[in-house]
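Handout, section B. The chain below has 201 residues.
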Amino acid sequence: MKIVFVRHGLTDLNKIGRMQGSSFDHDLDEIGQKQAETAAANFDPAPFDVVFSSPLKRSLTTAKIFTKGQKEIKIDQRLTEINFGEWDGQFLTALGQKYPDAIDPWGKAAADYIKYAPSGESFTALNRRCGSFMTDMEKNYLDKKVLVFCHGTLIRMMFAHCLTNGDMNCFETMANCALAKMSYRDGIYRLNYYNRILTFE
């Protein structure tokens, strides 16, 4: 199996540095729309056997732009971005100043964020959700090429689940519209590339 993940295009919340988990269903802004269209011009969806997307607008819009009407897009709730609970919609820089122990050295939410956002989804729960999706991919698409449109933190955990026992510290948040690819064979995942940015201005 070969599986490629694509992060959605830019949104207004991305632009101003607010947390954007599953509580916010903002679509691409004007820049994000153009970004996705230009990146998609350098992307061929034809080789893929199946396409999945998060149900959130920013992901689904990106999926439609990239697939150019050539593929059915299967919606999977497990691809929804992490729910950051009380942190959703807040400025990440302000959260880092208030809760420095819950922000990692790269300025992203760390596992301990859940102490201050008790209604949020833990990294352990996110890992479990990603694992459920990947197990289904292994069972149903073993000899296929799979294309997945989803979200920054979710993609980090997908790769962490498969390659580092759920430790997201090894993976950065990909750029908007960037791609990452893994291959799976005989119970082993291998990283092919990560955060590949298609040419756009």
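Note. The beta strands are 2-7, 50-53, 73-75, 145-150, 179-185, 188-196. Compare this with the example in section A.
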